[in-house]
Design a protein that fits this description.
With 249 residues, the chain is α/β, with parallel strands linked by helices. The chain has helices spanning 42-49, 72-78, 95-113, 122-135, 151-163, 181-197, 209-215, 233-236, 240-247; strands at residues 4-13, 16-26, 31-35, 57-62, 65-66, 80-83, 169-173, 201-205, 218-223, 226-231. The chain has two domains: 1-79 and 167-249, P-loop containing nucleotide triphosphate hydrolases (Rossmann fold), CATH 3.40.50.300; 88-165, no CATH class. A hairpin with a 2-residue loop joins strand 1 and strand 2 (16-26). The structure holds adenosine-5'-diphosphate and magnesium ion. Adenosine-5'-diphosphate binds next to strand 2 and helix 1. This is ABC transporter ATP-binding protein.
Length: 249
């Protein structure tokens, strides 16, 4: 059993079948990449995992519990965090303040559940955010305006805002889209560091094959809303079905 089990998921938009009978099993502490041509249904699938869309049929189980019908914030509380295509940060705030925001959210969310032990002072939250910034090598940028960061550092900051919530599954939708090579490599390094430092499962949608082959333990190829192949990276490149559907060769 994987940490995430998707079974028989279908999703239609009017006459268009965006997802057709999708099965996906993501194993704990692995990086699972989902690749496929534009319009294959990758983002639709991701949206079904985080509660932004509800599949017409099928099941989505995370750690043995169904996510279907739950609100995005509830799914987030279950331990699923999502990194958006464009970093969602607060440009007017400092780097440190950006990381403190989800700490407050986590505290106030947890507060309702376990009263006293979860009380954290603002000082403790600042420490927690600083430790997180050190973890992603951004401690010395703590006082900078988030808006003034480079694209790679904005991604780093957004990742810190996600990780400080201690998710067990991180979903990434094209984390290097629109980045120059240097920032892309920086993001690959960051994701590798994150994987080495903590127990975390990643599910990554990515167009850039360099990124996919640098990070993934397993790859699912989606074509026209249906998984075509699931295999280890070394078997994906030479697979003729993949070449035909995806690489257009
Ligand atoms: P990908 O992320 O793989 O490029 P998407 O999941 O965004 O693909 O889209 C899959 C298909 O579903 C595409 O044909 C797209 O046009 C369509 N689609 C996606 N979202 C919607 C929507 N909200 N309404 C109608 N059609 C949609
Ligand atoms: Mg997409």
């Amino acid at each position: 059993m994987g940490i995430l089990e998707v079974k028989g998921v279908n999703k239609r938009f009017g006459g268009l079948q965006a997802l057709g009978d999708v099965n996906l099993s993501v194993q704990e502490n692995k990086v699972h990449a989902i690749i496929g041509p534009n319009g294959a249904g990758k983002s639709t699938l991701l949206n079904c995992l985080v509660g932004k869309l509800i599949p017409d049929t099928g099941s989505v189980m995370f750690k043995g519990q169904s996510v279907l019908g739950r609100k995005p914030y509830e799914i987030n509380q279950m331990g699923i965090s999502r990194v958006f295509q464009t970093p969602e940060i607060f440009g007017d705030l400092s780097v440190l303040e950006n990381v403190m925001i989800p700490c407050f959210a986590r505290r106030d969310g947890a507060f309702r559940m376990h009263a006293i032990e979860s009380v954290q002072s603002e000082h403790e939250i600042m420490d927690m955010a600083m430790t997180m910034l050190e973890d992603v090598n951004m401690a010395e940028k703590r006082d900078m305006h988030a808006a003034s960061l480079s694209r790679g550092d904005k991604r780093r900051l957004e990742m810190a805002m996600c990780l400080v919530q201690e998710p067990s599954l991180l979903l990434l939708d094209e984390p290097t889209a629109g980045m120059a090579r240097a920032d892309t490599n920086n993001t690959i390094d960051l994701l590798r560091e994150i994987k080495e430092k903590r127990d975390i499962t990643m599910c990554i949608i990515e167009h850039d094959m360099h990124v996919v082959f640098s990070l993934a333990d397993r790859i699912t190829v989606l074509a026209q809303g249906t998984p075509l192949v699931e295999d280890a990276p070394e078997n994906i490149k030479g697979n003729p079905k993949v070449r035909e559907a995806y690489l257009g060769e």
